[in-house]
Design brief:
Helix 7 crosses helix 8 and helix 12 packs antiparallel against helix 13. The strands form twelve sheets. Strands 9-10-11-12-20-16-15-14-18 form a nine-stranded antiparallel beta sheet. Strands 21-35-36-40-37-38 form a six-stranded mixed beta sheet, covered by helices on one side. The protein is globular and about 80 Å long. The longest helix is centred in the middle third of the chain and has 21 residues. The protein is an alpha+beta fold. It is built from 19 helices and 40 strands. About 55% of the residues are buried.
């Protein structure tokens, strides 16, 4: 039985077509033999350079991301940051020649990292418990591999480990990772390395435990201190073959071992504990015999992991579980149907795939989960999720979920409010993962996520108390010790003495305050609305009238000395410069235009942003900005500017914005291994593309308004969760006819540059009449 080679892989890896086609036929799954939407997804996109995506297997929004790790670069050595660690935020870099093993937790597209929990690696030959090095893999258990014998598609990953002749295949359920290792004849083993991790450092593993329950079942846990300050990962492993022999090494100096010293714990002893545990389990294999290894995770306890294992994998083979996972991806991805060339289809569906990885499930099958207070809670009436990268994802990822996945958005909101109730700070998530707040980035953008869901009717009083929502928003915006909030309220801006990101914090806080004002107004709390509308004008307090740009101020009101409009480092802005950040007042674009000096200057500034040169010296100290993500001085490779090309809608020449948007889509999203121009950031970069392809974008989440951009495909349709369908047609679209001449919604002309969410979710036909530039 032969399966058609994945269309995306054919486009990106054509030189490997014969090997890939044969390997894809090995899936042995009837549903996979015909071309489907899955064939337009290439999980390898973004695994080279800045994308920081992973190629492995996961379930949509699943709690397990089972993927190969090609290196373990420590985050720090002797207290010194190791810049190379940044390249391994997802554990995998395409250019690496070896694979260390397959771990079960990964972020998709982040610019900081953690996880890489519970690494498993199959091996044969002499027992080696060190990782070895890429230059000399034979000194450890890692193996060389070739992309010619590597396959990645939604819910499935496979690779041949060249040093061992072992074929590794991976799939995943919502709470479990499923491995299948096909061995040559003779003795083989798996290594379970509980010391491995992403952004690792000496001392990160606080404790690890592994128990051999019987000859086919293992349980255990490890506790790490990383970006998640206290992360509990419990696991249960079910093996398809009985263990013949096993042991472990605890590579630490133990000062006190008590009466455990009476045992020879390193070999065939069923309980292992320590901070540097690497274990091995050996089996006898016939030629071509496969070992299936099912690994379920829990943040609660080992019993929870066992329950998850039984509920999701019991009685099912690797192939059967793979069918379920691929069917789940097929259902998720098929909400869109597009008419486009093959290459563009690949970019679109790969973007959609990346947008559906996070947030991630963080709850056992019985509803228990570990809260932000590290107590065990029971989810009542909702599914608990984690990995909330709100500085990134409030802009487009969460608005996209409000459009295509409103029920998921309700669960996200319930998870956020559970976090708030458990928080000793009485705060919504800032950047939260694995039952921890990691406080990354700035702002209180959980406010924006909730306000957007409310404004679009995704959250209603039937779902959640408006009083609770308002309480959570107000408290989150008034934590006096968080990023200069006390000074912000007192002075109307955050002083530079308080934080080096003062200008960015002021701008983003002002937007969040507008979200609170709009929400309060919608619930009849006009007194609170008036207060927060005033706070929302704080962005004006850092606009230097002499420059017409945002500029940080000191506590006494003076402007920052030696100010450089172009430098992305040390100027009061986070991961951006004054040129880009000065366009951030999405809640008050008319006021922003006035602050810059009027409509003509505003438009000229936009023109200059996209055409001027930004020399390397201005971003060489900012690792999240690279040349690939720049268009002139416009930074698309990072989030703060994502709305900027849509600001042309407020000028006399919106067609300029249409040209910029199309150029960004053409140049910065490509069907290549390095096809992302920056970190995908938990789906935000991809969500921008999906909205832009539809022809509109949420410039100001917290309102129900979309700003019209330009459609990218001649026709596309979206199956809405309410059973209705939105069809988007671009008449006469071509390379020459790429400008909007008129817009109709259900036959009625659309006046002005705005669409509204309530109209979109009613379905119907959105028509763009396209023509040459005017």
């Amino acid at each position: 039985m032969k399966r058609l080679l994945s269309l995306c892989l054919a486009a990106t890896l054509m030189s490997h077509a014969p090997a890939l086609a044969q390997r894809r036929s090995d899936l042995r799954i009837k549903e996979a033999f015909s071309t489907s939407v899955l064939d337009y997804v290439n999980p390898l996109v973004g695994t080279q350079k800045m994308g920081h995506t992973f190629p492995g297997a996961c379930f949509p929004f699943g709690g397990v991301q089972l993927s190969p790790d090609t290196e373990m670069v420590p985050y720090s050595v002797n207290g010194a940051y190791q810049p190379e660690a940044y390249e391994y935020c997802a554990g995998y870099q395409y250019d690496d020649p070896t694979i260390v093993g397959f771990s079960h937790t990964h972020f998709s597209g982040t610019g900081h990292s953690d996880l890489g929990d519970i690494l498993i690696m199959p091996a044969i030959g002499p027992l080696r418990l060190d990782r070895g090095s890429a230059d000399a893999p034979e000194t450890g258990y890692r193996s060389r591999f070739s992309h010619e014998r590597e396959t990645a598609s939604p819910g499935y990953y496979s690779v041949v480990l060249d040093d061992y002749g072992i074929k590794a295949e991976l799939t995943a359920t919502p709470r479990a990772g499923i491995h299948r290792y096909t061995f040559p004849q003779g003795e083989g083993r798996i290594i379970v390395d509980l010391t491995h991790g992403i952004y690792h450092y000496e001392g990160k593993v606080l404790w690890a435990n592994l128990r051999v329950e019987n000859d086919t079942t293992l349980t255990g846990y490890r506790i790490t201190r990383g970006w998640a300050r206290t992360n509990y990962t419990y696991f249960a492993i079910r093996l398809s073959k009985p263990i013949q022999h096993y042991g472990h090494r605890n590579n630490e100096q133990v000062t006190y071992n008590g009466f455990w010293r009476r045992f020879k714990v390193g070999e065939n002893f069923p309980e292992m504990g320590g901070t540097q545990i690497t274990a091995f389990f050996e089996f006898d294999f016939e030629e071509g015999e496969a070992l299936e290894c099912k690994v379920a995770l829990s943040a609660v306890d080992a019993l929870g992991a066992l329950k998850n294992l039984e509920a999701e994998t019991s009685g099912s083979s690797f192939d059967q579980l793979l069918v379920r996972t691929r069917n789940a991806w097929e259902k998720e991805l098929s909400v869109f149907d597009i008419q486009a060339p093959q290459d563009q289809k690949c970019v679109f569906y790969t973007s959609l795939y990346h947008a559906l990885i996070h947030p991630s499930l963080y709850m056992d099958v019985d509803g228990r989960y570990r809260g932000i207070d590290h107590n065990i809670h029971q989810a009542e009436g909702f599914t608990n999720y984690t990995i909330f990268s709100f500085w990134d994802t409030h802009r487009a990822e969460h608005p996209l979920m409000n459009l295509i996945h409103p029920q998921k958005s309700r669960d996200f909101a319930a998870s956020m409010l559970a976090h708030y109730r458990q928080s000793v700070h009485k705060a919504l998530p800032v950047w939260a993962h694995k039952g921890n707040e990691n406080w990354c980035m700035i702002g209180y953008h959980g406010v924006s996520v909730l306000a957007d869901a409310w404004a679009k009717g995704v959250l209603t009083p039937q779902d959640v108390s408006p009083d609770l929502l308002l309480e959570a928003m107000i408290n989150s915006s008034n934590i006096p010790y968080y990023d200069g909030s006390a000074e912000y309220v007192q002075l109307g801006y955050v002083p530079l003495e308080v934080t080096g990101n003062a200008a960015s914090v002021t701008l983003e806080n002002a937007y969040d305050d507008w979200c609170i004002a709009r929400f309060a107004q919608s619930t009849g709390r006009d007194d609170i609305a008036a207060s927060y509308h005033q706070r929302a004008q704080s962005y004006k307090n850092i606009f230097d009238p002499a420059l017409g740009f945002a500029r940080p101020r000191y506590r006494d009101g003076r402007w920052k000395d030696d100010f450089d409009l172009l430098d992305t480092h040390g100027q009061g802005f986070i991961e951006g410069n004054a040129w880009n950040y000065s366009f951030f007042a999405p809640h008050d674009v008319p006021g922003l235009i006035e602050r810059m000096g009027g409509k003509a200057i505003f438009e000229a500034r936009l023109d200059s942003l996209f055409t001027m040169e930004l020399p390397d010296k201005y971003f060489e100290h900012t690792e999240d900005i690279t040349r690939e993500g720049l268009m002139g001085n416009y930074v698309h490779g990072n989030e703060p500017s994502h709305h900027v090309p849509y600001l042309y809608a407020w000028t006399d020449h919106p067609s300029k914005g249409q040209a910029r948007i199309r150029a960004i889509m053409d140049q910065m999203y490509q069907n290549k291994i390095d096809g992302l121009c920056g970190n995908d950031d938990c789906g935000q970069m991809s969500a921008w593309y999906i909205f832009s392809a539809m022809g509109f974008y949420p410039v100001c989440p917290g309102s129900d308004q979309y700003v019209i951009g330009t459609p990218y495909f001649s026709k596309m349709s979206l199956k809405l969760e309410n059973g209705k369908e939105l069809t988007i047609v671009a008449h006469n679209l071509s390379s020459k006819n790429s400008y909007i001449h008129s817009v109709k919604l259900n036959g009625q002309p659309v006046q002005g540059p705005f669409l509204h969410h309530k109209d979109m979710v009613e379905g119907g036909i959105l028509e763009f009449e396209m023509g040459p530039g005017v």
